[in-house]
TrEMBL record:
Gene3D superfamilies listed in its UniProt record: Metal-dependent hydrolases
GO molecular-function terms, A-Z: metallodipeptidase activity
Protein name in the entry: Diguanylate cyclase
InterPro entries: Dipep_AS, Metal_Hydrolase, Pept_M19
PROSITE patterns from the UniProt entry: RENAL_DIPEPTIDASE_1, RENAL_DIPEPTIDASE_2
Length: 307
């Protein structure tokens, strides 16, 4: 069973709706046959608004992605279920996969909490406040100013807390991370690695990892080569180095995976497609017990769903 906390399939389908197929084996990193082949249990699908879209077009783009999610991922496949709660996931049959919507960046809600509420009603159950740049909620990891949460950012988090859904800290700059961690009741990092193993502004420093662990959060180790190894070329054992480091800080119960499949141009050697999760599992088996591996792959994220 695999719980993958982040992918960009919806962005790819949005940018190229006619050419790419979710049905074919390897059109994308994640496709229907591959999810089924690997026994995917829960896959999170991010709504990410491409930066060329102007204010006024962004919420509409988010709605279009929700439409694509249903048309291309849910409706054609009887054994992929749209899930919006822990109960939905618990009720999945053995052969079924749960698909959940998430949001990557407040751009989509155009400074309107009502639009966030609409996306919640449409099933979004995890919200990252930024991508790499600044927006109305906070500053992202690559924004030189490095500002914290705005009033609107706090307002968004209040809403997420009230609905008991995740606030995703991946992509936030450090100041915004700390503001968010204080305000959010249910923080996760859907796709981030350890800074001390690979110093990228997208990765988490030791204090951040420890603070997430203290808040009973989960860190989705991500398969982005540039966040795994500073050479930009990564192997499966690089993923182990990041897991090992999080575990060394007391995080054994707080490690998960957020592949970033279909959001990346280059991939880890031996982990170029969802199907190759089995290579990762093979590598994990050299270092960890079955129980630890089950928790990394599924249990640690799944047990933190509070909605
Ligand atoms: Zn991302």
């Amino acid at each position: 069973m695999i719980f993958d906390a982040h992918c960009d399939v919806l962005m790819k389908l949005y940018l190229d709706p006619d050419k790419l197929s979710f049905q074919s084996k390897e059109d994308m990193h994640i496709t229907y046959p591959q999810l089924k082949e690997r026994g995917a249990r829960v896959q999170l699908f991010a709504i990410y608004i491409p930066s060329y879209l102007k204010p006024g077009q962004r919420f509409q783009a988010a709605l279009n992605m929700v439409n694509l999610f249903h048309k291309r991922i849910i409706e054609p496949h009887l054994d992929i279920k749209f899930v919006t709660s822990k109960e939905d996931i618990d009720n999945l049959q053995k052969h079924e996969t749960g698909a959940m919507l998430t949001l990557e960046g407040a751009e989509a809600v155009e400074e309107d909490i009502g639009k966030l509420e609409t996306l919640y009603r449409l099933g979004v159950r995890s919200v990252g406040l930024t991508w790499n740049w600044a927006n109305a909620a906070a500053d992202g990891a690559l924004e030189p100013r490095g500002g914290g949460l705005t009033n609107f950012g706090y307002e968004m988090i209040d809403f997420l807390n009230e609905k008991r859904i995740w606030t995703d800290v991946s992509h936030l700059c450090e100041k915004a991370f700390w503001d968010t961690l204080e305000a959010a009741r249910f923080p996760i990092a859907s796709h981030s690695n350890a800074y001390s193993i690979c110093p990228s502004p997208r990765n988490l420093r030791n204090g951040q990892i420890e603070a997430l662990i203290n808040k009973d959060s989960v860190i989705g180790v991500t398969f982005v080569p540039q966040f795994l190894n500073k050479t930009g070329i990564a192997e499966l054992t690089d993923i182990i180095r990041h897991i090992e480091h999080i575990c060394s800080l007391g995080g054994e119960e707080h490690v998960g995976f957020g592949s970033d499949f279909d959001g990346i141009d280059t991939t880890v050697k031996g982990l170029s497609f969802y199907r190759q999760y089995d290579n990762l599992i093979g590598t994990l088996q050299r270092y960890y017990t079955d129980k630890q591996i089950k928790n990394f792959l599924y249990g640690n994220f799944n047990r933190r769903i509070k909605c």
